[in-house]
Amino acid sequence: MAARVDALFFFLVGVSLFFAALICILIVYFAIKYRRRSEDEQLAPIEGDLRLEILWTVIPLGLTMVMFVWGAKLFFVTYHPPSNSLEINVVAKQWMWKVQHPEGNREINELHVPLGRIVKLTLASQDVIHSFYLPSFRTKMDVVPGRYTTEWFQATRIGNYHLFCAEYCGTKHSGMVGQVVVMDPADYQIWLTQGSPGSTLAQAGESRFRELGCSGCHMGSSVVRAPPLEGLYGKPVPLQNGQIVRADDGYIRDSILLPNAQITAGYDAVMPSFQGHITEEELLEIIAYIKSLGSKAPAQALGSRAEEQR
User: Fold this and answer.
1) How many CB atoms neighbour CB 12 within 10 A?
2) Cα distance between residue 284 and residue 256, in whole Å
3) Is 50 helix (H, G, I), strand (E, B) or coil?
4) Maximum separation of any 2 CA atoms in the chain, in Å
5) What percent of the chain has pLDDT above 90?
6) Are 200 and 103 in contact (CB under 8 A)?
7) pLDDT at 304
8) Beta-bridge partner residues of 89
């Protein structure tokens, strides 16, 4: 996106410089041409010109509309990650970046990515507001406690690129830095295998899922009625209040931490809250596991935000 962002930026700078220079030149020109030459000189009435008024109204309007449409289009592209992206989780914590790859690799203050691959980052904060800023990629996104935000990029050159926190987050904010390492796809695959993760993110999520007792209600022969999770992710979920929501990362997160906020239609509010008992990394692991369940069964709705006895 860097080239597209730069093109808009330079257009804005060019328009600003052109009109700043034009106005300065006209100020000097009019100051000289229409200066009062003697105390007896009488000013002539100035007649209005409707055509001139229309001209200097239409031209700035046209330019600002070009800027608006161009910027809005770029905004929507920037904030809507493509569907065929490599998904990586990033958890911000005073004062570090903790990265989770789907293959199970983990790193701190470094993010290894393959060249040419679209990368979607799911960002979460464990404490205060941070901001994931990659100046070379012209992309920045706030990382807000209590919710997920997303950011995406597609690296086009191999190399190491700066990573900063661009939101003041405490005493050591200036030290919350890192780097994005862009690698040849073949080298990236070698790097993944050399990391020797014990399990993938989804497998770690399954272990956490069973450890917390979620499978007792959501899987197979459940004792307590709870919504099935197979095929849930990405599907519409009907709620008791008549609303329909989409089972995305945020919905699953809220279903675990705030189970009574949105109760699935047909289920009771019996699921306990796990707020304070599970970390952001563990939440992302469980979400990865639920995603991996695919469409093994028709999705009803997760979280009974109510009763998943997770």
Assistant:
1) 14
2) 11
3) helix
4) 103
5) 49
6) yes
7) 39
8) 100, 122
